[in-house]
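Protein modeling request. Please complete all fields; requests missing the sequence field cannot be processed.
Requester role: graduate student
Desired output: 3D structure, token encoding
Chains: 1
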Amino acid sequence: MYLTGWRFSNRSRSRKSTMKKYAPTTPSRRNMTTVTYRGVITHTEPHKALTHGRKRDVGRNNLGRITVRHKGAGNKKLFREVDFMFEKKNIPAKVVSVEYDPNRTSFISLVVYKDGEKRYMLTPKSVRRGATFIVSPDAELKTPNRLPLSKIPVGTFVYNIEIKPEGGAKLVRSAGNFAQVVANDAGYTLIKLPSSEVRKVSEKCWATLGEVSNDEHHLVNIGKAGRSRHKGIRPTVRGTAMNAVDHPYGGGEGRQGRGTKRPKTLWGKVTGGRKTRGPKKYSNHLIISRRVVGKKRKG
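Delivered output (299 residues):
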């Protein structure tokens, strides 16, 4: 099994930032930044046939109970049907527009297949209107063609990776992310994910060549509380600011320390270091190297 020379390249991080900054007309505007859409986005209105409305869960489960806190309100969003299955194989397609999608961090592209069908897909980095691609086991090794992992050479950057053959893209779909093919061995392909985890995926699974667009998304400075509310993110209250009945850190006169040996959640469960992965999880045998976390990753 070949495992040498699989460190990530820094070529995608060396580009100078082009974030849009604003004049400090108000305190909140002083440090606010946004992604520059000029020269990237070509259409402002989505393709109507590939959009529909939907009810937002806003952090609640099927019983109406809040299972994810700090979600709710925000601007109304029209859902775009993005194709992650890519079942149209061996049919050339052309990118006709690059658009903004409020439901995800990356840009999306409207593509037209040779038979006339239109679909949305995630836009890879550096791909513009007029680019062509194909989903085929015999496709050329260029962005954004899609091939089985068995046909992709070691060291290639990929995204939109399947976990099960013909199961649709599940891994590496958010803005600026990419994985790297590390090795091929015994019917599996080893992939280094953005989290630094190295895991095995069946070589029959498909992946798209390249990197996801909008790689400067992580540099955005929200700037003010109102902008966060528009995104559907509700305020987060510090545990130490609560009463003793509401949080393990609550209560006391004035500012208090944590008062507990280990950090805890609102429900008293230990966080900040405890491993939560189940010992019998179905994919444990597929993980070659666990992700690096905390201080080790910063170093």
